Amino acid sequence: MENEANEFDAVAVVRELARKAHPDAVPELIDGADVAAIAASIEPARAAFARLKEQLASAQSVARPAPVPAGGNPPAVDPDRLPAAEKIRRGLVAASRT
């Protein structure tokens, strides 16, 4: 029984060492009942980590908002393209500010 407990502890130590030695792998995927199984699980864990990193990077690039110009000014509006009623409204607002 003691030999079995020592073997279990040794496998747990190897598992933890493998997880710490490979920060570029999903730690939960590095697992196994013996050293060979742990070693075999490292490469799939690294591949999963790489896929997740790539997916997160592509999701971040898509989710970035459009840059705001310095000063936060709204985009310029071409007055020639505004309807007459909007031109009048803007003129009245500007006149009431002065």
Keywords:
0% strand; 64% helix; mainly alpha; single chain; 98 residues
Explain this structure to me?
This protein is mainly alpha-helical and 98 residues long. It has a domain at 2-63. Helices cover 64% and strands 0% of the residues. The chain contains 3 helices and no strands. It has helices at residues 2-21, 35-63, 84-97. α1 (2-21) runs parallel beside α2 (35-63). The longest helix has 29 residues, at 35-63. The protein is rod-shaped, with a radius of gyration of 31 Å.
Describe what is shown at a glance:
By secondary structure, the chain is mainly α. The protein is built from three helices and no strands. The chain has a domain at 2-63.
Q: CA-to-CA gap between the ends?
A: 91 Å
Report the radius of gyration as a whole number of Å.
31 Å
Low-confidence stretches: none
Question: Whole-number average pLDDT?
Answer: 84
Structural class: mainly alpha
State the shape: rod-shaped
Number of helical segments with 4 or more residues: 3
Main β-sheet: number of strands, strand sense, barrel status? none
Note the run of SSEs as H and E: HHH
Helix content: 55-70%
Beta-strand proportion = under 5%
Strand elements, count: 0
